[in-house]
Amino acid sequence: AFIVNRNDIAKPANVMNSDEQSDAFWKPKVKYSYPWRVRYINDTVFVYGLYAPFHFSHWMFNGLLPLYSIMRSYKATRDAWLLRAHMVDHQRNRTIPEDISFLTDGKDIVFDSDDILTEMQVVPSSIPICFARAVVVKQDYTVKFLNFDVGCSLPATAKLLEDVDILITPHGNGLGDAIFMAPKTTVISIDTRFYSETWFAFIHTAAGRRFYNFQCDSSECQVADFEMAKKQLQKDGIEMSYHELMEYLGPEYPYRLIDKYYPGEDKWGYLRYAKDAIRRVNVEKLVKFVNEIVEEWPMVQSKPF
């Protein structure tokens, strides 16, 4: 499957409605011109995935109902087509050959001839099929990138944030800027792996906003900033060996070294580093989390402040 566009505007989208381990992110290929011969269908193709289709409940609740919901939201006609992009835990000899013509009179494109179980399923034609529109996933929001590092006055900051529904920012002054957001909006603080605090949470929840701390607990999200750590240790009058510094900045919380070099009650030495350390996020999990927040908007907006 491909789109025709000068730029790669497609983004990977999760076509599975299941547990995180079964997520499947799919995107069409990009071509810059049309094939010399195509079959044009003036309708929409809906891309979807199936989870364990041999099991009726999974086939229905993880597959067809989410697909039906998307088709309804885009006002699909009876001539719309389907494209099955991915299947998880597939057992062909047990798959339920249920008729899904209640969804559409169009065809259901599958990539393996063994998946043709009813008259609806067809394998891709040797002649490319061009659809007027394709729906892979529903995302009714616009992503903005706000950079306050270059300097921004308070009135300008208030103007930038007046129509922001979800603010995602590293822990710091960006969370303070969210005070200009409307009630019933959401603030997400991207925290480092070993540092999190609730100071901003009290402010925003009191103002009627939802506040979340989001962090990646995987060691893959941890970035060891040697220069920052050395400067912090020098300020505290501490000198570590190379191997100790590697342990100090390693994937595990350095209890031993903290007790060794900060023997008193003040254990903030390491936390001062962790608070400002470079942070990464698991983008797929963050996008999924944002989508869940968006889905809850109607319920949140209907509640009295």
TrEMBL record:
Q: What is this protein called?
A: 8946_t:CDS:1
Top-level taxon: Eukaryota
Please name the source species: Paraglomus occultum
